[in-house]
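Figure 3 (text version): structure tokens given as input.
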């Protein structure tokens, strides 16, 4: 009954539409008025706006699947299983998240405290689950995460394909711990 491309578009915008529906319910409660419904409607409408903004950010994070491999996030552990490489990273042990470009493909580079790294293509199956996982990291906001996906100013697509991108997205701040240098 609905064309497949329209169905895909509607499915992609479903969370934003749900947020808009919550805003509508909140505004309806405000319209009813009264000492109880007016503030309740305002709170519901603000919650709907927050849901819609977060859904719009999450939607911008989702890319069409083009890379081989599957990403899973389960109980604080990010796993990537690719045809030739893969691995696991614990979010608790994560110390650095970088966005790099290698051989024409943009990748997340996740580094643990012990130095192990995991490379995950941005457009792998299930990579959209990384949005919520990364948003749970201390000091990393969802707005900063979405902004990191935008190409750097002045960089053209040829520079990105040649491997010209190496952007720090997040680094864990260790309070009270002074790293030792190689000579100490």
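Below: residues designed for each position.
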């Amino acid at each position: 009954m609905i064309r497949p491309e329209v169905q895909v578009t509607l499915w992609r915008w479903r969370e934003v539409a749900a947020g808009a529906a919550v805003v509508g319910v909140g505004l309806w409660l405000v319209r009813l008025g009264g000492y109880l419904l007016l503030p309740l409607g305002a709170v519901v409408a603000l919650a709907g706006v927050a849901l819609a903004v977060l859904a719009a950010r999450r939607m911008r994070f989702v890319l069409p699947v083009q890379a081989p491999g599957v990403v899973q996030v389960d109980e604080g552990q990010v796993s990537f299983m690719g045809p030739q490489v893969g691995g696991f990273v614990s979010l608790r042990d994560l110390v650095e998240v970088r966005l790099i470009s290698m051989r024409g493909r943009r990748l997340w580079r996740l580094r643990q405290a012990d130095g192990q790294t995991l490379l995950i293509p941005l457009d792998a199956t299930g990579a959209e689950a990384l949005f919520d996982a990364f948003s749970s990291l201390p000091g990393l906001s969802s707005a900063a995460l979405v902004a990191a996906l935008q190409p750097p100013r002045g960089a053209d697509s040829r520079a990105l394909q040649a491997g010209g991108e190496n952007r720090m997205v997040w680094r864990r701040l260790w309070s009270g711990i002074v790293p030792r240098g190689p000579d100490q």
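The chain has a mean pLDDT of 84.
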